[in-house]
């Protein structure tokens, strides 16, 4: 089995931060049920539940595989005796939490991802708990990354840069979007991509990203991002299609990679031949938004400011209707936190008013959509530092222009 | 955008079947929120909710992308006006369901996948509904496949067979598991694999399967299957690792593929050199279980019978402790329904007593785990026919023995 991969001291810090948050909210404990949350707090994602009391040591109750959890976990592991008896087991192990109360005690849980059926059953199994929505705390607590985590994202950035190079070096007119992503994914995988990327949002899925050209790239979709792509079927309605890539049309290469659980997200635009003046202007506007965003990416900036300013720049360029999708299919953000999941907090969107902090990692992705024509844009993942920011993305930042034969 | 891909008449049959089920349970309607369910009943998986009344036509309330849903869907599409106003919109559109009642009416929903947060909010937004757990009905209703669906699974089988051949043709000693799966996945993708496979179970994930050799294959994991694999990290604790594949050890190649939403699942065992007599016997026992299972795979058989009989055969061979995982990490099933999700119903497990029916598609996967040594086994996906069954899997059924140089 694989050894513990996360620094023990860091794991203790994470738990302390969570407990401090619980204290402010008046919760008696937190129940983590989602695999990503388990990995973040227990160092393992075996099937089970992690109970973190407001004070003291947590216990990770594991159903399967117990032996694997015992090897991997950085916290105390116990066998989950039975689902129905989980409440009794908790009362026995945490008398200070559940023992002396007359009323049910408030316990936060990851209700944004936990299925309703499990929620109902947990409420029955733990009658002394009143399960409340702990999603916001759990998402906030993960926003600032440690050097260990940043190192993992940087590894993913390296693999993504290699994969982009592999794709660009073999890109040619007439190749389908599917053929292009096959080359890119193969390079990602060879470099350690775990084979999937995690999104927290319900029904949100991501392959390795969106690789799409011309009108296919500009098609709207449910995917919670600025560019969807035609996809292969109504059952896979995003990213690549079997459409051949033509000359003089924008090719959007928005790819991610997941190494040891941590993801990167980056976008580059390519063209075989040349872009029209209109698309060139839009691409340059995306670059201008990125430059302006970089000047704001520092501790203290409110995340919503970046979106508001980007909207202004797009509007001054006469491109507001095409910014981050077209018309009613626009998304209302400029970027997003990134780490164990693609869609972490903070979001660079209206309403996100907790100031940026050093250690946060954010993907910033200004894009412009021209229905029937294509999507242009650029995306880097950044680390917020003490004084500003630095890109984690390694790919050279430019429009990739290939000669049409 | 992509045109409608599912036969209209078939879509009507699906809704009729669901409505018949609702009638028996006394529900006034059903609310489908999960992407796979939306695709099954509405032909599109854009973000929104499908409301199916117990009688009459359903409406698909779409938030994004409305234009795409209108192109793809086979049912009536309406814009979801606002989440908070969803209850009012439903009352206006379905006065016969919500209008005349004094009490809240029972509405089934997919509570096994719907997040608890959404469940709580939907209960608030639709005060005239009493949302009940409709998971069982929704899962049962999909168990029997149409010729259209079977055709899609057969396409996935073809891609999987090609990918296995590609992997086997380039398999050699010293290659890592990661390198082997990279070859396989590349071939799957080239042939139209959508880039992900869907599982319904909470926290369950699947890359394209488990490709693992020797002791790494035999490591236990949370994955709800008989063989997990070491994985690349505690954050990806299943399937491939960076372990080199050696000679004389079993190489488990359990791969899936998803074409237009439909998945196949198959396993073959390979070896470079030769298997020990003990592993050879176990492999032959897996084949014997498969042969016996085929004799039972026909309309009328109770799914649990297949598991019970398989256990008997394993026990007679002295292999019960190693059957479907080792010791306490065993899973308690022999196979599972398969279609839009990998983990469909029925499961070949104790408690599944609704008889098999023609049109059901099932993956049957007897495997034996030898900790520290490896996993051997075989898996085919079958279609239940009027008189028996036929394999959909196309790969030749044999132990793949490669010469060690």
From TrEMBL, chains A, B:
InterPro entries reported for this sequence: Creatin/AminoP/Spt16_N (IPR029149), Creatinase/aminopeptidase-like (IPR036005), Creatinase_N (IPR000587), Pept_M24 (IPR000994), Peptidase_M24B (IPR050659)
Protein name: M24 family metallopeptidase
Biological source species: Cohnella suwonensis
Location of the Creatinase N-terminal domain: 14-144
Short name of one Pfam family: Peptidase_M24
CDD domains: APP_MetAP
Domain Peptidase M24: 152-386
């Amino acid at each position: 089995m694989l050894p513990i991969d996360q620094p023990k001291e860091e794991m203790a810090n994470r738990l302390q931060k969570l407990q401090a948050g619980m204290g402010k909210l008046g919760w008696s404990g937190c129940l983590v049920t989602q695999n990503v949350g388990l990995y973040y707090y227990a160092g393992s994602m075996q099937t089970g539940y992690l109970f973190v009391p407001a004070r003291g040591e947590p216990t990770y109750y594991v159903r399967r595989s117990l032996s694997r959890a015992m090897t991997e976990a950085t916290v105390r592991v116990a066998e989950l005796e039975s689902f129905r008896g989980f409440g009794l087991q908790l009362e026995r192990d945490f008398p200070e939490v559940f023992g002396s109360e007359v009323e049910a005690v408030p316990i936060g849980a990851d209700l944004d991802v936990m299925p309703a059926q499990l929620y109902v059953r947990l409420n029955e199994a733990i009658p002394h708990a009143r399960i409340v929505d702990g999603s916001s705390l759990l998402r906030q607590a993960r926003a600032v990354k440690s050097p260990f985590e940043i190192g993992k994202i940087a590894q993913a950035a390296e693999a993504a840069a290699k994969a982009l190079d592999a794709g660009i070096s073999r890109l040619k007119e007439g190749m389908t979007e599917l053929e292009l992503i096959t080359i890119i994914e193969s390079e990602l995988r060879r470099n350690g991509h775990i084979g999937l990327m995690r999104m927290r949002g319900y029904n949100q899925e991501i392959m390795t990203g969106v690789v799409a050209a011309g009108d296919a790239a500009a098609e709207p979709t449910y995917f919670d991002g600025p560019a969807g792509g035609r996809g292969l079927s109504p059952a896979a309605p995003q990213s690549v299609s079997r459409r051949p890539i033509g000359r003089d049309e924008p090719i959007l290469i928005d790819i991610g990679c997941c190494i040891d659980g941590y993801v990167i997200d980056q976008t580059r635009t390519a063209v075989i031949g040349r872009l029209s003046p209109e698309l060139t202007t839009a691409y340059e506007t995306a670059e201008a938004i990125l430059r302006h965003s970089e000047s704001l990416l520092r501790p203290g900036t409110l995340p919503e400011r970046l979106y508001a300013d980007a909207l202004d720049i797009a509007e001054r360029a006469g491109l507001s209707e095409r910014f981050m999708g077209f018309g009613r299919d626009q998304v209302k953000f400029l970027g997003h936190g990134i780490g164990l999941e693609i869609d972490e907090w903070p979001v660079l969107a209206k309403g996100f008013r907790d100031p940026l902090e050093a250690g946060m990692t954010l993907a910033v992705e200004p894009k412009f959509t021209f229905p029937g024509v294509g999507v242009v844009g650029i995306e880097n993942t950044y680390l917020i530092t003490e004084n500003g920011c630095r890109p984690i993305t390694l790919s050279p930042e430019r429009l990739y222009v290939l000669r049409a034969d």
